[in-house]
C-alpha cells in the first residue's frame, strides 16, 4: 500500500450564521496522484435535509458523499458534525459549496490528500464513526492502519482548544456553536481529542483514509 500523504488544508475555514448554503475558495488541491478530498462540517441545525457538497462548484461540479457513519448530532441542540469525501478531485484552486434545507449556523473546512484508494465511499473512507458525551474532553477513536490517515470534526457550544492531533481549524465565531477539526497519521487506532472550557455536550465524528495499492508491487519488482 502507498502511504497516504497530506496535500493541503484550506487556508481558512468558512462560517456563517442562519444560512442554507456556504462556499469556500480557500483550498487548492495539488496535482499528485490518487487524490482525495475530505470536508469537515459543523452545523447548529440537527434536522437539516437535502445536504449536497460539491467541489469545483460552477465548473465540473464533482459531488462529494457523506462518509458512512461519520454524521451525528449532539445530545442537546444545537450541534451536528459531518465528514464528506471525494476521490479524484480536480486539481487547482476551485470552489467548494455545501447547500441544504433549513436555516443553520455552519462551519466548513476541507483537506486534500494524495495516495488514497480511488474506489470511493466506505472503501476509500472506511471506519466512519461518531462519539457524543458531556465532558471537558471531547474525543473520537478511529480504527485505522499504519500508512493510512485519519480526520475528525467536533461540534459543541463551548470554547475548543488543545487538539491532540494536527489542527485543521478551530472556529468559535458562529452564534450558537463552535466547530473544529484535526488530522493524523494512521495507526491501529487513533484518538482525536480536544479540551473545552465548560462541561457541556459535544459530538465528534471521525474516519479513516485508505491508502492506494502500489501498482509496482502488484506487477512485481523487476
Number of domains: 1
- Supply Rg: 17 Å
Low-confidence stretches: none
Structural class: mainly beta
Number of strands: 19
Give helix and strand order, one letter per element, not per position: EEEEEEEEEEHEEEEEEEEEH
* Biggest pleated-sheet summary: 8 strands, antiparallel
Helix content: under 10%
Oligomer: single chain
Query: What percent of residues are in strands?
Result: over 45%
Query: What's the number of helices?
Result: 2
Query: What's the N-to-C terminus distance?
Result: 18 Å
Outline, from the CA principal axes? globular
If you average the pLDDT, what whole number results?
96
What would your notes on this structure say?
The chain starts with a strand and ends with a helix. The strands form 5 sheets. Strands 1, 2, 4, 5, 6, 7, 8 and 10 form an 8-stranded antiparallel beta sheet that branches. It has a 5-stranded antiparallel beta sheet with strand order 11-19-13-16-15, with no helix packed on it. It has a two-stranded antiparallel ribbon with strand order 3-9. The chain contains 2 helices and 19 strands. It has one domain (5-217). It is mainly β and 222 residues long. It is globular, with a radius of gyration of 17 Å. 4% of the residues lie in helices and 57% in strands. The longest helix has 5 residues, at 215-219. A hairpin with a 6-residue loop joins strand 15 (166-171) and strand 16.
Amino acid at each position: 500500500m502507498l502511504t497516504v500523504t497530506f496535500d493541503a488544508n484550506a487556508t481558512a475555514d468558512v462560517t456563517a450564521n442562519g444560512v442554507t448554503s456556504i462556499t469556500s475558495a480557500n483550498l487548492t488541491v495539488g496535482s499528485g496522484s490518487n487524490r482525495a478530498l475530505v470536508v469537515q462540517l459543523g452545523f447548529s441545525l440537527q434536522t437539516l435535509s437535502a445536504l449536497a457538497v460539491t467541489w469545483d462548484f460552477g465548473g465540473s461540479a464533482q459531488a462529494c458523499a457523506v462518509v458512512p457513519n461519520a454524521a451525528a448530532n449532539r445530545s442537546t441542540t444545537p450541534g451536528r458534525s459531518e465528514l464528506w469525501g471525494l476521490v479524484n478531485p480536480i486539481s487547482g484552486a476551485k470552489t467548494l459549496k455545501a447547500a441544504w434545507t433549513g436555516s443553520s449556523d455552519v462551519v466548513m473546512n476541507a483537506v486534500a490528500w494524495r495516495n488514497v484508494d480511488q474506489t470511493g465511499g466506505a472503501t476509500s473512507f472506511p471506519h466512519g464513526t461518531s462519539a457524543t458525551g458531556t465532558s471537558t474532553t471531547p474525543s473520537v477513536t478511529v480504527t485505522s492502519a499504519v500508512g493510512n490517515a485519519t480526520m475528525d470534526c467536533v461540534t459543541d457550544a463551548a470554547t475548543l482548544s488543545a487538539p491532540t492531533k494536527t489542527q485543521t481549524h478551530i472556529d468559535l465565531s458562529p452564534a450558537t456553536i463552535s466547530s473544529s477539526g484535526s488530522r493524523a497519521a494512521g495507526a491501529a487506532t487513533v484518538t482525536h481529542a480536544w479540551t473545552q472550557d465548560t462541561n457541556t455536550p459535544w459530538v465528534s465524528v471521525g474516519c479513516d483514509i485508505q491508502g492506494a495499492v502500489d501498482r509496482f508491487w502488484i506487477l512485481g519488482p523487476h
